[in-house]
């Protein structure tokens, strides 16, 4: 039996809801769940800072251990607040990391390569999902995560998909998969660069155009040289900028499909408007460097809290029930984008 998705709100309703969560009554109902997610996020941050490793992945696994709290009526409102409102807030603040100058700096050919890689990888995700008999939404989610910016893209795309338990479970599995693959790529891809004897610029385009998460891109790039690290970061941020049109396209796709079920979805999600405004403000140098650093830290904190909350809402059994097909989807999309970028660099003579 197909699980019904929850009704979606208009952007005006979402805006009012975002403001209403700060009312005293809402704070009283949310503080328990928010506290739980904060403790999980702090523990994940401590382990990541002290011993290394991906912060978001730790937050997810620690959250899974507290799944029993998802049935607690006192904690559930705050957990929902972290998994929905803070998730959208964190994605919106990601825009403060990007400027139009960074995108223009990489040149026309690398920009076209990034566009091709993003679009074709999402299409690859849809095709693989169809072949494996999985829902189209899973192909778009996993393809978008691999094509754009890993866990952050998975969370952003999931925010405009129908809110079902299956989608939440697949989102968490995608976060685990892209984080693990991105960490492996950070180690393997620099070795591949040396084997293929790529120049520093070509290496930066390859690393920035293929590795899923921003932190791993920077780490892999600077393992080779400062120039490679700089190019890789700029190319990667160009992929992050693709988050806006991709999420809008996914939102429109499901908005059209859901009209038959008399549900309403916003034409442009509010958090994407925030993302675009933050990107515009950063491009116009309206955000001081100190404030920009604070916004980046706040964005990361919101996403860690959201991942912790999503972990609490999901069980190991639910993740295991998804089987091997989602893993194959992620691996296939990762191999596709890496092969495409390498072939394009060879064709362009880089």
UniProtKB/TrEMBL annotation:
Keywords: Cell membrane, Membrane, Transmembrane, Transmembrane helix. The keyword Transmembrane helix applies. The keyword Methyltransferase does not apply. GO terms for cellular component: plasma membrane. Its main location: membrane. It comes from the Bacteria. It is found in: Cell membrane. The chain crosses the membrane at residues 33-51, 103-128, 140-161, 170-192, 231-254, 266-285, 297-316, 328-348. Belongs to the UPF0324 family. This is UPF0324 membrane protein.
């Amino acid at each position: 039996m197909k699980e019904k998705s929850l009704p979606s709100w208009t952007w005006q309703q979402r805006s009012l809801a975002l403001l209403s969560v700060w009312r005293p009554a809402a704070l009283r109902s949310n503080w328990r769940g928010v506290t739980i997610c904060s403790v999980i996020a702090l523990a994940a941050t401590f382990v990541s800072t002290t011993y290394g490793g991906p912060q978001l992945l730790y937050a997810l696994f620690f959250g899974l251990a507290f799944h029993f709290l998802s049935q607690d009526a006192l904690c559930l409102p705050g957990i929902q607040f972290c998994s929905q409102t803070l998730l959208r807030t964190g994605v919106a603040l990601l825009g403060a990391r990007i400027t139009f100058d960074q995108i223009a700096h990489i040149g026309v050919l690398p920009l076209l390569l990034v566009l091709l890689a993003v679009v074709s990888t999402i299409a690859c995700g849809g095709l693989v999902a169809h072949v494996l008999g999985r829902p189209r939404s899973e192909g778009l989610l996993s393809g978008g995560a691999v094509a754009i910016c890993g866990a952050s893209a998975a969370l952003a795309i999931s925010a405009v998909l129908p809110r079902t338990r299956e989608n939440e479970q697949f989102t968490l599995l995608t976060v685990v998969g892209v984080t693990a693959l991105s960490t492996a790529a950070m180690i393997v891809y620099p070795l591949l660069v040396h084997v293929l004897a790529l120049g520093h610029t070509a290496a930066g385009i390859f690393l920035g155009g293929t590795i899923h998460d921003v932190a791993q891109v920077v780490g892999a790039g600077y393992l080779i040289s400062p120039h490679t690290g700089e190019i890789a970061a700029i190319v990667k941020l160009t992929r992050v900028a693709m988050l806006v049109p991709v999420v809008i396209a996914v939102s429109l796709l499901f908005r059209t499909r859901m009209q038959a079920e008399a549900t309403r979805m916003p034409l442009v999600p509010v958090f994407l408007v925030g993302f675009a405004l933050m990107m515009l403000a950063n491009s116009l140098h309206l955000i001081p460097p100190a404030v920009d650093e604070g916004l980046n830290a706040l964005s990361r904190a919101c996403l860690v809290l959201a991942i912790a909350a999503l972990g609490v809402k999901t069980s190991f059994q639910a993740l295991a029930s998804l089987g091997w097909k989602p893993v194959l989807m992620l691996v296939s999309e990762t191999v596709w984008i890496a092969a495409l970028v390498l072939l394009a660099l060879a064709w362009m003579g880089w």
